[in-house]
Model the fold of this input.
Amino acid sequence: MGILDFLSKQFVDVIDWVEEPGQLGWRVPLADREIQNGAQLTVREGQIAAFFNEGRIADMFGPGLYTLDTSTLPLMTAIMNWDKGFKSPFKSDVYFFSEKEQIGLKWGTAQPVTLRDPELGPLRVRAFGSYSFRIKEVAPFASRIMGTLGEVKVADIEPQLRAAIQTALATGVAGGGTAFLDLAASQTALSEALKAAVTPAFAQWGLSVESFFVESLSLPEEVQKHLDKASSMRVLGDLDRYAKFQAAEAIETAAAQSGGVAGVGAGAAAGLAIGQAMTGALGGTASAPSAPAEDPFALIEKLHKLLDMGALTQAEFDTKKAELLGRIR
Done:
């Protein structure tokens, strides 16, 4: 390789960036090379190019095609004390930044967040969702995130962004005093509240939150089971109806087990015994166990389900149905 070939490689006359998915910032590799006066700078849509001098932004360029000279680099010209006749190559750090929206990112609570529910007391809540962001201000992103790195990708800063989201969830929602059931019922309002809480944290890095969604808000499984049981009690209204509900549930459960219909009596009796024991514990008068005043039509409906499931034959069903109808006066 001749000396002229070597020298020709020390000057840069074309500067551009074809970014890859997930890239946020890229430093043009100009080590031991100088930018030729009159070089062509291409900035594509969704990009910003920045020229740095001693770690500070001198000139910035939005989308377009530029010829680099004293007229297109006014701040750099002033810093370098170039006169109007500037013709020689110059050195500068050149960075490209992507302003495209980075979409489809996921967030979630690594550990449950404790929520002080005004109705249910302390609850450990998990939440998951998605969000998107973009670079809005180059200066803070360049100084706080990019620094002297050659490249920054979304994956490099995602852990930091998720930590900011979890902090916003813990402080903004957990301390807000809103009942869990109200939060779960309005995920749109919760999404907007969390977006507002996260925005200042993202802004300190020069980022803007473009969208924020809460897709799931859940409780530990054992707590959810307790709430489901409590909901059943409230719907049924009283202990007598609760006992009947337990007996009816036992019929369907027994039909699916190895004992078949033979287990129905034991399950129903267990449900009735629970109801009687709870009534006594709440101050009711003790009385000898007696057959419940079952609704014949409701029981016929249950038996019909067993017939459809194949747990009863048609003859057995007809016999029992006739017996129950005979009780109606």
The longest strand covers residues 121-135. Residues 112 and 126 are 5 Å apart (CA to CA). The first helix runs from residue 3 to 8. The two ends are 113 Å apart (CA to CA).
